Amino acid sequence: MQLKLSRIAEVTEGNLEGDGSAVIHDVSEIQNAEEGEITFLGNPKYEHYVQETNAEAIIVGPDFSGDYKNLIRVENVSLAFSKMLDHFRPSPPQPEPQIHPQATVSENAILGINIYIGPNVVVEDEAVIENGAVVKANSYIGYKARVGANSLIHPRVTLYNNCAVGENVIIHSGTVIGSDGYGFTRTQEGIEKIPQKGGVVIENNVEIGANCTIDRGTISNTRVGKGTKLDNLIQLGHNVEVGQYCFIVAQTGIAGSTKVDNGVTIAGQVGIAGHVKIGKNAQIAAKSGITKDVPPNTTMFWYPAREHSKARKDIVNIRRISKLKERIKKLEQEIETMKG
Amino acid sequence: MQLKLSRIAEVTEGNLEGDGSAVIHDVSEIQNAEEGEITFLGNPKYEHYVQETNAEAIIVGPDFSGDYKNLIRVENVSLAFSKMLDHFRPSPPQPEPQIHPQATVSENAILGINIYIGPNVVVEDEAVIENGAVVKANSYIGYKARVGANSLIHPRVTLYNNCAVGENVIIHSGTVIGSDGYGFTRTQEGIEKIPQKGGVVIENNVEIGANCTIDRGTISNTRVGKGTKLDNLIQLGHNVEVGQYCFIVAQTGIAGSTKVDNGVTIAGQVGIAGHVKIGKNAQIAAKSGITKDVPPNTTMFWYPAREHSKARKDIVNIRRISKLKERIKKLEQEIETMKG
Amino acid sequence: MQLKLSRIAEVTEGNLEGDGSAVIHDVSEIQNAEEGEITFLGNPKYEHYVQETNAEAIIVGPDFSGDYKNLIRVENVSLAFSKMLDHFRPSPPQPEPQIHPQATVSENAILGINIYIGPNVVVEDEAVIENGAVVKANSYIGYKARVGANSLIHPRVTLYNNCAVGENVIIHSGTVIGSDGYGFTRTQEGIEKIPQKGGVVIENNVEIGANCTIDRGTISNTRVGKGTKLDNLIQLGHNVEVGQYCFIVAQTGIAGSTKVDNGVTIAGQVGIAGHVKIGKNAQIAAKSGITKDVPPNTTMFWYPAREHSKARKDIVNIRRISKLKERIKKLEQEIETMKG
Question: Is C255 close to A268, i.e. CB distance below 8 A?
């Protein structure tokens, strides 16, 4: 388990600045690290800890200009530190492939090889569980739903009928995929439900956090593109399409039929109205409310959201209104005096 | 499955403008529709697609003034299109009435006829499952809880003890009804829990989305009125009373003891403080924060929310502060000049 | 079950002002209370009901200056009323200690005495269920997870591997503890997951509402301190540390690595950025967005949040901009006239 620093430099493709024979036996945060531990400096806010830490070595990025007894300098600090976490901290044991005797699996389900289906999992008719997939305890895989190869469904996930999860996808506990879209129409008698007959498609390499809700489309599919990562408690309305390699942070909601292009970053507690388009590589700051289309490569902020620097200026301006009032009052007095 | 356009006009109670012998075999969105498919124009934002679509026919409302080869003109476009969805798109098979052998149903539960109780469902003592109700896999129906006739409880729903769901209700996966209200009081020793001994009443024809939380009342019941429709991830605090035929959109939270009158529409990510009253047919715009009573028939916006046109004006005004500053500066210079 | 008012005064350590021989048989809200019922006045907003209520007696605090036929005056109204709720309203029957035959409990789990493990609960290898703990139906207790003595896990809760819940903790239905923190890094190939190898520690006497999500730490533990109370649908990111005896209201989200000191109150729908510190006894008003450290004993409001009175003033100022515009216009006209 122990690694010499010279070996760590190789594994992380980093440059060692210090003593390659130092021995590392664990990882730690910079503020807590002790002798024999390796840590990292990922956020400039924590740079002052470099003076205080007892770490044996620190992984730093190309821009770090400080001194420390042992540094490993890499292009991507997070990636290098990931490798250390994987090495020094064991993962919990993975379940052996099996269909647990307490699972309820339809005889019409289509099952791949090397799959794990945990206790109290329900797999309905014509559902597909592909090779190497893991469906953990108490999850529900609906009629004609699909779990792609090597995907990991954590405990207590719901996949409604006709929803498809791609390969190498991770879905955390409590998430619901394929609930009916919020489609109703007021009539003379009250409120009528509009049937929701589309599905949900989760493409390969997506990760979805805990207790999210992704509604099925009305006619076609709601879609989350390849490699996109969702945090917890996120709501995607019916017919939403999220592109590839997007980040969507916790408690964000995207209303029906909105399209999010590739590479977009949406911070926490953002709300996006229905039927709008978010352009490629756009960024939405936390808690913003988007009511209109957002052009590509634009950062939006506040509610109702504007381009980030404009919203910033608006906020600064608000805080200056008291001073403006004073200046107006002074002008009024001067005019009074002059008129006097 | 195929329908002639003349027949569709009858079924939707619409006026056909075009060729009644045209044959329709599927539904589609206007931007994707192909020959042989019927589509609809529900949102004026999509009107430009009328020029581009390949649809065989379009369902339009009374106000549509454009041209197309085949139109069906109806009062309520959504309602007409609903009928097409129901006709052309099959629903997943409904479960046959049964108590699944993997369900755990108390012998003291009271069970109607023609009910479905799925695998790993738990039904506690004295719970009532009325005629025709469906409780899908892995749900929990607590002590003395009730599921009304013909209601549909999707997989992985929790109904705590003494909570009552009416008839023809739909509850989506992951929703929790009857968790303890958030009632505590600080004492010298720390924080003391206030027992939550009321229940929850969900009236007939309500629909509740996925992963919502509706807390039980402290003494009486938290209540959701007849025909009201909740989206996903909504929080209703203890003692909240929501009236009839309301819309509440995703991620909205309503704090304890607030009363929402009939016909109210609350958009997404709204927050409503505790102990306030929302008047009949009021509308709350998305992401607004309501801190006071709202009169009937009023539209509220922003945070802290005001009447919609006032909030709009506030936002416009903020964006003009920079110009006001310039005007003040100019005035100051002129006064300086005049004072010489 | 009936109690004389004189006896109630003793039980609540209150002063009786009225007829001690009056007999009470139930509790009620002040607006609904009838003869023979005791009620309480906890919120000054409801004081006008004192004139209208038919309650036999009212529990009031030291500051109440009105008149009523029977009053019980106490230091802490909520606490006194809690005792009445506990007395007059029965709790649902508690489950008898047992391992339900439909539970799936690893033979390597470590089980205390007098525990209840409900149907379809899964307890993985080396998990610990301490004396007197209750784990209700359809919950999942992961590898090496721990449920402390006398804790109550409601139905359908997930505790991931290596997460520890202390003693006398209550966790409501649908909550997920220990899902992976949201840790990713963009690389040339797309997005790489950063392993999340820490755990979650929930200290003694904590209560957590329904459908919350608490992510595991990256290296160390995410932590919720002793006696803290969380409402529903709350998100705590990885490495968050919440102190002791805090209140966190529904739909609040706290981003990764933020530290919340003891005694903090956070209202509903608040968002707190990552890597900030919230000082002891600070208060955050509903829907606020915190982007920076908050000093102790400070009340913050709005988004981006400022000290409460400043934010209030900002909001008042916004609503005065129209008048400022008019004053500026008048000044301009006067100057024009003067320049003549």
Answer: yes
pLDDT tens-digit map of C186-210 = 888 889 999 999 999 999 999 999 9
List the 46-75 stretch of C: residues with Cβ below 8 A of B. Answer: none
**Cβ neighbours of residue B282 closer than 8 Å, sequence gap 6 or more:** B261, B264, B265, B294, B295, B296, B297, B298, B299, B300
Q: Mean pLDDT across chain A, nearest whole number? A: 96
C-alpha–C-alpha distance, residues A58 and C220, integer Å: 17
Query: Which CATH class for the B98-312 domain?
Result: mainly beta
Which region, left, alpha or beta, applies to residue C130 given φ > 0 means left and ψ of -120 to 50 means alpha? beta
C-alpha to C-alpha distance for C217 and C226, rounded to whole angstroms: 18
pLDDT at position B10:
96
Span B6-31, average pLDDT: 95
Q: What residues in C contact B289, CB-CB < 8 Å? A: 269, 286-287
Q: Is B313 helix (H, G, I), strand (E, B) or coil?
A: helix
pLDDT in tens, C4-21: 999 999 999 999 999 999
pLDDT in tens, C285-323: 999 999 999 999 999 999 999 999 999 999 999 999 999
Task: State the SS3 of B247-288.
Answer: EECCCCEECCCCEECCCCEECCCCEECCCCEECCCCEECCCC
Inter-CA distances, C320 with A132, A243, B306, Å: 64, 43, 14
* Helices A321-339, C321-339: crossing angle, 10 deg rounding: 30
Q: Measure the CA–CA gap between C15 and C3, rounded to whole angstroms.
A: 16
- Put simply, the chain C residues between 71 and 130 with a CB less than 8 A from any chain A CB are 102, 104, 120, 122, 125
The answer as to CATH 3.40.1390.10 being correct for domain B3-88 is: yes
Q: Comparing C-alpha atoms, which of C270, C274, C154, C129 is closest to residue C208?
A: C154
The tokens 């359809």 sit on which residue? C138
ipTM reported for the complex, 2 dp: 0.96
- Domain residue spans of chain C: 3-88, 98-312
Q: State the first-to-last Cα distance of chain B, in angstroms, to the nearest integer.
A: 89
Q: Is A48 a catalytic residue?
A: no
